[in-house]
Design brief:
17 strands; alpha/beta; binds flavin-adenine dinucleotide; globular; nine-stranded mixed β-sheet; five-stranded parallel β-sheet; 13 helices; FAD/NAD(P)-binding domain
């Protein structure tokens, strides 16, 4: 059996696989999706995420990534446009994750698609992985990169969140497409929840929403009713979606996003079980830095494995790198949910333009921790 097994071929799993295979390690990666698939994500790539992706050799522009230079904050009838402190990019996860998986295969990783890891056990420190279909693998090192999906035997003890996320794509009218060029829009609702809208490759607009579970229940639990409700609250969103056609028949959704979670290592943790990406840390989505954290964790895990360091040391390092950033993200998210602040957000950004670069810098992977810049 290969010594290194990676469960999950999202950003974190593929990036770690590439780094380890290029360093000469034999790596097997298990990805449960048999074919390219959409993922729930706002698909905004921060400058840090771009640096880490450049290290994998991906040419993001050639994949169709488009620059995002400005953010438009919208709240009711009020809106403000601010220049981002860096140039972001938009790229669908379907394209990005597929390119990374292909790069992993090219680097020599044994990529097995359409298979899922069902159970992990680490009795006495020896790892045993049960696959669907009944096969059992015994890797020396397991990189757990299954995103927000829990695997039996290795479930995180994350506090369940209260927000539910949706993502879908729309074909918008030409005027709406023109208005969104190079912009990401954050449409803020009272209560602090929000919708993000931006163009991605293929002429589609990504609409990503985060709403309280209780609100979804109040409108009957169905996405069309939720979207209709949000449009009734936001004339701006209603205007953007007027005459639009849905590109996905069913939106992607995720319940109880565990924002604020950072894996806390335990001395009893098996030395060969490394948690990457969302299995290790989850920053509020408004920061647009979740992918950077996933890629950072991949680089840190590969670094630790190559140096022969045990998993608890890696988890300690990752915690030191990102815990403060994630905590600040939570503070900002909670502040923005306060009615007084929430009501005046666009005006506040207009009056005090320094707020945006400050919030951005507070919620980035800190420069001192970054492995690539
Ligand atoms: C609503 C929302 C909006 C977001 N917007 C942004 C944004 O705009 N910018 C940003 O930077 N971040 C954003 N994020 C965060 C970002 O999407 C995640 O942090 C990132 O996807 C984490 O990468 P990952 O590799 O850990 O997990 P994932 O990308 O989820 O990959 C996990 C992989 O594991 C596979 N898998 C799962 N279970 C198994 C199994 N049992 N066996 C084998 N394979 C398995 C899955 O199929 C998947 O391919 C957002 C998150 C949410 C919830």
């Amino acid at each position: 059996m290969n010594q290194i097994l990676i469960a999950g071929g999202g950003l974190a799993g593929s990036a770690a696989a590439i780094a380890l295979a290029r360093a000469g390690r034999k790596v097997t990666l298990i990805e449960r999706e048999a074919a390219p698939a959409h993922k729930i994500c706002g698909e905004f790539l921060s400058i840090e995420a771009q640096s880490y992706l450049a290290e994998t050799g991906l040419d993001l522009a050639a994949l169709g990534a488009a620059p995002i230079t400005h953010v438009r904050f919208v709240r009711g009838g009020s809106s403000t446009v601010a220049k981002l402190p860096f140039q972001g990019l938009s790229l669908t996860r379907k394209t990005l994750d597929e390119a990374l998986l292909n790069a992993a295969a090219q680097a020599g990783v044994d990529v097995r698609r359409g298979h899922a890891v069902r159970h992990i056990s680490a009795a006495g420190g020896a790892l045993s992985v049960a696959m669907d279909g009944g096969a059992r693998l015994s890797p020396q090192i397991l990189l757990l990169a299954s995103g927000k999906h829990e695997i039996r035997g290795a479930a995180r003890l994350a506090r369940p969140g209260t927000l539910v996320g949706f993502k879908t794509y729309f074909n918008l009218r030409p005027e709406a497409i023109a208005a969104l060029a190079s912009h990401v829009e954050l449409i803020i609702f009272s209560g602090g929840f929000y919708a993000g809208l931006q163009m991605v490759e293929g002429g589609l607009a990504n609409l990503c929403l985060l709403v309280p579970t209780a609100l979804l229940a109040r409108v009957g639990g169905k996405f069309p009713a939720l979207l209709a409700h949000l449009q009734s609250l936001s004339p701006h969103l209603a205007g953007r979606l007027a005459g639009a056609t849905d590109h996905l028949s069913v939106p992607l959704s995720i319940a109880r996003v565990p924002y604020g979670f950072v894996y806390r290592p335990d001395a009893q943790d098996p030395p060969g079980l490394f948690r990457l990406g969302d299995q290790a840390a989850v920053i509020p989505s408004f920061s647009g830095d979740g992918m950077a954290i996933a890629l950072h964790s991949a680089a840190r895990a590969a670094e630790a494995v190559l140096a022969g360091r045990p998993a608890p040391a890696y988890h300690q390092q990752l915690r030191a790198d990102v815990a403060a950033q994630i905590k600040r993200g939570m503070v900002i998210q909670n502040l923005c949910a306060r009615p007084l602040i929430n009501a005046v957000l666009p005006g506040l950004v207009r009056l005090v333009p320094a707020i945006l670069p400050l919030a951005a810098s507070l919620t980035r992977v800190p420069a001192a921790a970054r492995l690539y810049t």
